[in-house]
Amino acid sequence: MVKVGDNIPNIDLVEGKPDAKVNLCKELGSGLIIGVPAAFSPACSDTHIPGYIAHSKLKSAGKVFVVSVNDAFVMNAWAKSLDENSSSGIRFLGDPSGAFTRALDVEFEAAPLLGTNRSKRYAIVVENGKVKSVDIEPDNIGVNVSAADKILG
Amino acid sequence: MVKVGDNIPNIDLVEGKPDAKVNLCKELGSGLIIGVPAAFSPACSDTHIPGYIAHSKLKSAGKVFVVSVNDAFVMNAWAKSLDENSSSGIRFLGDPSGAFTRALDVEFEAAPLLGTNRSKRYAIVVENGKVKSVDIEPDNIGVNVSAADKILG
């Protein structure tokens, strides 16, 4: 799995619509990548991401991205449901094929329930384009080591 | 592709949450199945499904189901965004693996854009468990032959 010192995978994600690409390897100098298993799932929607949106230290975390194995339509709608005016500054990126997630080696088997395999829940702090810290939920989907309070302090 | 006289595939779909199964082969005596390419996509969300929700003859169509190759979390959220209190009576079912869609032979290649292949847009009128009429969009995603005005008259 992804570890301290790694580069961010040079794999396109999508934002807002299916053909709008974002490459975190090129775009994210320093900041935070939050991986989640499923847009609109209760743990992701009620606890994990709202915890970041509400956190007093969010603005000092640099660029913050949420990444999930969902398509751009779904990620866009999910973003609006959590943060209608994008006032948090968090950006919501889709990894529809799961290629970015597999490159980080954080995929887990979810296809029997959700149709496709998904991303373990994680938080990766990035500094100067490299992984500075990484916290991956050991049970894939819980909200503990990757929670806002643990990451943003 | 699915044709008049066919049975409805005996394949579970999901409703509301990933483990809540619905089998239209068993449940749908007479009514309507509306297939769509993608939850939260503009054509599906702004035109196709709202056209059914607003149609004066919807209530006489029997049981009405929307089916898409999306997971249950996404379909549930999409349903609430279109019809917050389920007042239309339309039920939104996910076909996360695409198995139901492939059994109807209405899948088209969408994986490069959306991560998974999806369902052509269609409307199937079902009577006594068999396909009474079927209208499939020839370009996969347009809203013409399967529009509410064409199907509900």
Overview of this structure, please?
The structure is a homodimer of 153-residue chains. By secondary structure, the first copy, chain A, is of the alpha/beta class. Chain A has one domain (13-152): 3-Layer(aba) Sandwich (Glutaredoxin). Chain A has 6 helices and 9 strands, in the order ββαβαβαβαβαβββα. Chain A has helices at 24-27, 42-53, 72-82, 99-103, 111-114, 148-152, and strands at 13-15, 17-22, 31-36, 63-68, 91-94, 107-108, 118-119, 122-127, 130-136. In chain A, the strands form 3 sheets. Chain A has a 5-stranded mixed sheet with strand order 5-4-3-8-9. Chain A has a two-stranded antiparallel ribbon with strand order 1-2. In chain A, strand 8 and strand 9 (130-136) form a beta hairpin. The first copy, chain A, is globular.
